[in-house]
Amino acid sequence: MSGAVKVLGVLGSPRRGGNTELLLDAALEGAAEEGASIEKVVLDALAIRPCTACDGCRDGIRCVLNDDMAALYPKIEDADAIVLASPVYFESVTAQTKAFIDRCQLFWCRKYLLGMKGKRRAGALLAVGARVRTDFHAPEATARALFHTLDAMPCQVLAYAGFEEPRSIEDHPDALRESRELGRQLAARGRDII
Ligand SMILES: Cc1cc2nc3c(=O)[nH]c(=O)nc-3n(C[C@H](O)[C@H](O)[C@H](O)COP(=O)(O)O)c2cc1C
Fold first, then answer.
1. Burial environment of residue 90 by CB neighbours within 10 A (0 to 12, 13 to 18, 19 or more)
2. 18 lines ligand 1 (CB under 6 A)
3. 38 occurs within a structural domain
């Protein structure tokens, strides 16, 4: 055991105080209750360009694009657990979330091109959509691809369909409690890993 478990929450929603942030905050609170040290990054507040496929990260050292993602790489590397939280936009994750994920190509190169061993960690996706029939297939597949790359499998998923208005997730009888519980579990899993 080497200090507190570090749980990184990544908010992919641009709507502050909306459903996704409520879910993420509940998860992070749950993790904190388990003794984890928590940090939340708000992607919409950062300037993160999409990956340009320049292959600059093929050496596994760094992404050559110089923007706010540079500060997130060490946070990702350090995290014992990562909670990715995104609303569903056109059946997938938000553009902010996808840009963040694509910029994790650095970790993909390290793992799959260079065979470098990454740190094992825990991972989870929180997703919310307005359509009652949203099936979350695309966000889940995208999150799993990320968490495979970050050695954070299996990826736990909590997904809630039918919530359009900001804070309407509070009408769900269990969503915030389930998120909080997920945060607790992630912190516990992270503790088993470190
Ligand atoms: C550009 C845009 C696209 C959306 N596309 C979908 C969609 O494909 N399926 C769905 O269920 N909800 C869709 N929604 C609704 C949001 O997922 C929903 O309102 C969610 O609760 C927003 O989360 P937030 O409160 O964290 O912003 C879309 C919303 C926006 C703004």
1. exposed
2. yes
3. yes
What digits encode the pLDDT tens for the residues 33-91? Answer: 999 999 999 999 999 999 999 999 999 999 999 999 999 999 999 999 999 999 999 99
17, 174, 189 from 52: Cα distances, Å = 31, 40, 34
Tell me how many domains the chain contains.
1
Residue 1 lies in a domain: no
- Cα of 161 vs centre of ligand 1, distance in Å, is 10
| CATH number of the structural domain spanning residue 79 | 3.40.50.360
Taking the centre of ligand 1 as the mean of its atom positions, its distance from the CA of residue 37, in whole angstroms, is: 30
- pLDDT over 80 (residue 11): yes
CB distance 139 to ligand 1 below 6 Å: no
- Could you identify the residue written with the tokens 């919409």? 44
Total-model pTM:
0.97
Q: Whose CA is nearest to atom 21 of ligand 1?
A: 164
The finding on whether 56 has its CB within 6 A of some atom of ligand 1 is no
